[in-house]
Specification:
about 230 residues, alpha/beta, 9 strands, two-stranded antiparallel ribbon
């Protein structure tokens, strides 16, 4: 079955989560579906104990990572995005209602029929909080336009939750070009990728795409979990 969607909102905790989770999807449908990506938190400050590291101000590091995010999305043809830059690794210190309101406002303004967000089985706590806030913002009783809610997997987080496993029930077949585009977009984040066997490597991206392809009788695939669908 073809993915029947017109407007997709991708909700990511940090810059690069969008590419890791949905980069192939954005490549495949870049000329058919309108995408918007929002980043709830920045992805860098939690690594440092002080405001200055090797002469670089943390804000400069955050801005640099955001610029990587813009390059990556532009490469995939996505021009609509927003960085909220809440504190990385500290979303548990932000009232969840504040995160919920950010997501609700984005939904009300963009009016997506479909939302993609983090899995509830990740090791990263920011991912879990964004998942919870998205569930709140897209609840069927809310005044939203969302018909379908999916979760995606993140290399270097989802697969390391050894006590719980990501269980996809929706697979999107990808061409080799889509997988390569996903990698080339991720490669824009020069501070975030490492050599294989680190998951965020070219081999890691292709290996996961091949594995999800094997599961779904495709050469390559991206895997998602449909949380709910409402027929209108």
């Amino acid at each position: 079955l073809k993915l029947i969607m017109n407007k997709i909102l991708i909700i990511a905790a940090h810059p690069d989560d969008d590419i890791l989770g949905c980069g192939g999807l954005m490549s495949k449908y870049r000329n058919q579906i309108e995408f918007k990506v929002i980043f709830i938190a920045e992805g860098s400050s939690c690594r440092f104990d002080k405001n200055d590291i090797k002469g670089e101000n943390i804000q400069e590091i955050i801005d640099k990572r955001n610029s990587f995010g813009v390059e990556a999305l532009n490469f995939l043809g996505v021009k609509n995005y927003h960085f909220y830059n809440l504190p990385c690794g500290r979303l548990d210190q932000v009232p969840i209602i504040d995160i919920n309101k950010i997501i609700e406002n984005e939904i009300n303004n963009f009016k997506p029929d479909t939302v993609f967000t983090h899995s509830s089985n990740d090791t990263n706590n920011d991912h879990l909080i964004v998942h919870r806030a998205t569930q709140m913002a897209t609840r069927p009783g809310a005044k939203t336009f969302v018909e379908k809610l999916y979760t995606y997997e993140i290399l270097s987080s989802t697969e390391w939750r050894f006590t719980k496993t990501f269980l996809p029930n929706y697979f999107e077949s990808l061409s080799e070009t889509d997988v390569e585009n996903k990698w080339l977009a991720l490669e824009k984040y020069i501070s975030e990728i490492k050599k294989y066997p680190y998951p965020r490597s070219r081999e890691g991206v292709f290996t996961l795409s091949k594995y999800r392809g094997i599961q779904s009788a495709n050469r390559f695939a991206e895997a998602f979990r449909l949380i709910r669908e409402i027929k209108r």
